[in-house]
Amino acid sequence: MRGFSLVLVNFAVVARDIAVTLQQFDLGVPRISLAHDDAIGWMSSEEVCQNIRLAVVQSSPDAFVSTELCAMLETAKSKVILLVESPDQAKASRFPCLTLPFFTEDLEALIQREFTPQSSGRSGGVP
């Protein structure tokens, strides 16, 4: 396993489940953060920031795109999945989204669909 993954969600239990799923897909060593400032602090190391393979972030698309975290992930060309509150938010996002609540199988299917070499996906990170 190489690189890192970032899990930034509001609930530790959900974050842990997501982290385990990312490990199973060999998407890097997961880092669980419960706050944007914590995630940004961890990413301040260039070695970490440039090696984040996937970030799963609980945020509306409108709020996320205006954050320093989004800018850092886009600069690093990291892939991003947003966890959103409503299907309307998902439709309006340029990033792949899961609508809360979701099952582990939903996350697995999204990873397979959006982030495998044969997928066309959206523009939410590295093609």
Helix content: 40-55%
Overall average residue pLDDT: 90
Taken in chain order, the helices and strands follow as EHEHHEHHEHEH
**What best-fitting shape do the alpha-carbon axes yield?**
globular
Count of DSSP helices?
7
Describe the model:
- By secondary structure, this protein is α/β, with parallel strands linked by helices.
- It has a single domain, classed as Rossmann fold (3-Layer(aba) Sandwich).
- It contains 7 helices and 5 strands.
- Helix 1 links the parallel strand 1 and strand 2.
- The longest helix has 13 residues.
- The C terminus is likely disordered.
Labels describing this entry:
single chain; 127 residues; alpha/beta; Rossmann fold; five-stranded parallel β-sheet; 7 helices; 5 strands; disordered C terminus
Structure, briefly:
With 127 residues, the chain is α/β, with parallel strands linked by helices. The chain has helices at residues 12-24, 36-43, 46-49, 61-65, 68-75, 87-91, 104-114, and strands at 4-8, 29-33, 52-58, 79-84, 97-99. Helix content is 43%, strand content 20%.
